[in-house]
Design a protein that fits this description.
about 250 residues, mainly beta, Trypsin Inhibitor V, Chain A, Immunoglobulin-like, 4-stranded mixed β-sheet
């Protein structure tokens, strides 16, 4: 009987010792690691290595690998037996290397277009100071049956100018008088234009000799004159200008 009593007491002592050891482990104190910013998976591993129990506050997780610890209690380096964490969703986590996450990737520079080749130097536009319209005369176009004439100077010193394609605008006509002679030599019409305007003389169809007097110029005190021959057609306007060459 005494032996049975001793064995029973020994078993009870062993049981009590085991219970005390388990109670001690449950209430053990750990040094809380820093879990903020980590994914839940990594936070669990760190808490386990530190000997801390991890409690997740809030709703259930959708994907543990894509949610991170937003805050923790108690904070890092505190001593406790349990640490509670609150999570936030994150599509992609690029934490610092010290937090156990992936190292952030440097932003990629947007591709740039290759530089444009330098523009080839353009030849300067050079022409005479005075110039005439770029038309071929006589210019016959549908319209009133008439004679249209302008007075122009052509030549003078060379000048530089700026114009798209080196094409200057049409010059403005000068002042002059036009006399129209019939085939028989009779004067049938005369008209004087103002500067910036054309002479416009209605005429019956036929052949004519026209003489223009430049009123904007003199040579040895006399207004220069030019003579042209034109044919007037019914239903058409005939453009015949007078051009004085200058040096």
């Amino acid at each position: 009987m005494r032996r049975l009593f001793v064995v029973a007491v020994a078993v009870i002592c062993v049981a009590l010792a085991g219970s005390a050891s388990a109670s001690g482990r449950a209430g053990s104190v750990c040094r809380v690691p820093r879990l903020k910013g980590l994914t839940l998976t990594i936070a669990r591993i760190r808490a386990t290595h530190a000997g801390c129990r991890l409690r997740v506050a809030g709703g259930a997780l959708e994907t543990a690998g894509t949610e991170t610890v937003e805050r923790q209690s108690p904070g890092a380096r505190a001593r406790a037996s349990r640490v509670t964490v609150w999570l936030k969703a994150a599509a992609v986590r690029t934490g610092a290397a010290s937090d156990g996450g992936a190292r952030p990737q440097a932003p990629q520079a947007s591709p740039q277009a290759p530089p444009s080749p330098p523009a080839e130097p353009q030849e300067p536009c050079i022409g005479s100071a005075a110039y005439v319209p770029e038309i071929t005369e006589p210019l016959i176009t549908p319209g009133p049956t008439e004679l249209v004439s302008g007075f122009y100077f052509d030549g003078g010193p060379a000048v530089r100018f700026s114009a798209p394609g080196c094409k200057r605008p049409a010059p403005s006509p000068g002042e002059g008088t036009v006399e129209v002679m019939s085939a028989s030599g009779a004067l049938v019409a005369t008209q004087t234009s103002e500067r910036g305007h054309f002479v416009e003389i209605p005429l019956p169809p036929g052949s004519y000799t026209v003489t223009g007097t430049f009123l904007d110029a003199t040579i040895n005190g006399v207004h220069p004159r030019e003579t042209e021959h034109v044919v007037i057609q019914p239903g058409y306007s005939t453009r015949q200008d007078f051009v004085l060459q200058i040096s």
